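User: Please fill in residues for this 224-position structure.
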C-alpha cells in the first residue's frame, strides 16, 4: 500500500473509474488506482473535489492537510472503519505500568541501537570524522535502559542518547546543513526543518497502525 503526496500548488484531486486523478499545471495528469492508496497528504493550496472526498471516506483512506512548510492542520478521516477491539486493548494496556515500562524499554532500546547502526554506516564514507565518544555514550545509555524502573529514568537515558546522536549526525552532514542540536517550534536551521517535516509525516502515517507506506510523488515534473 502507498501514501500519495501532493505538494504542487493549484493541483486538483478528483476520482473517476476507480482511480484518483491528479491534475497539475501544464496539463500534467496522473492517475493512481484507489486500491493501492492507503493515505493522502496534501501540502498547501490543493483542491479536493467533493467526489474525491466522498470516495476517500468510503474507502477508509486518511487524508492529511499541511501547509507548504509542513505545518499540520488536520485530517479528513472516516469514522466507519474503527478497530474497536484493538482500541479497547490499547486503553487497558496503557493502565498496566509493568507493560508500559517493558514496551518503552524495548522500543527505545531498538531506537538507540538503530541510531548507532546509522552513525556507523554513514561513518564509512566520512573522511577525518571520529564518532567514538558519541557511540560509546549511546551504547552506555542503551544498556542502562534495560535496568530502568521508572518512566523518568527511561526518558533521561533516551534524551541523553539523542543528544549524542544528533551531535554525531551533525559531524556527518554537508557543511551547509551543520546544526548545533535539535531545535523545534520553530526549527532554527534547514536540517531541523527537514527533521520536523519528516517527524510530522511519520506521525501521520503510523497513528493508524500502517505497516508500509511507499510514496507516489506528483508534480509538474512528476513530483508535487
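Assistant: Residues filled in for all 224 positions:
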Amino acid at each position: 500500500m502507498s501514501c500519495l503526496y501532493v505538494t504542487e500548488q493549484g493541483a486538483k484531486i478528483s476520482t473517476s473509474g476507480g482511480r484518483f486523478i491528479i491534475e497539475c499545471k501544464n496539463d500534467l495528469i496522473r492517475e493512481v488506482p484507489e486500491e493501492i492508496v492507503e493515505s493522502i497528504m496534501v501540502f498547501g493550496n490543493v483542491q479536493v473535489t467533493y467526489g474525491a472526498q466522498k470516495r476517500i471516506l468510503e474507502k477508509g483512506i486518511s487524508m492529511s492537510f499541511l501547509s507548504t512548510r509542513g505545518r499540520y492542520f488536520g485530517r479528513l478521516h472516516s469514522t466507519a472503519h474503527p478497530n474497536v477491539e484493538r482500541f479497547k486493548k490499547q486503553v487497558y494496556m496503557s493502565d498496566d505500568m509493568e507493560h508500559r515500562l517493558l514496551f518503552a524499554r524495548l522500543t527505545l532500546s531498538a531506537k538507540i541501537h538503530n541510531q548507532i547502526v546509522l552513525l556507523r554506516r554513514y561513518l564509512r564514507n566520512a573522511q577525518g570524522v571520529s564518532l567514538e565518544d558519541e557511540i560509546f555514550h549511546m551504547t552506555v545509555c542503551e544498556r542502562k535502559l534495560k535496568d530502568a524502573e521508572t518512566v523518568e529514568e527511561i526518558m533521561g537515558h533516551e534524551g541523553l542518547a539523542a543528544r549524542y546522536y544528533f551531535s554525531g549526525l551533525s559531524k556527518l552532514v554537508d557543511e551547509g546543513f551543520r546544526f548545533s542540536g535539535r531545535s523545534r517550534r520553530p526549527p532554527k536551521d534547514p536540517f531541523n526543518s527537514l527533521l520536523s517535516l519528516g517527524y510530522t509525516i511519520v506521525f501521520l502515517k503510523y497513528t493508524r497502525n500502517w505497516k508500509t507506506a511507499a510514496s507516489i510523488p506528483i508534480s509538474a515534473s512528476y513530483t508535487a
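For context: The first strand starts at residue 2 and ends at 6.
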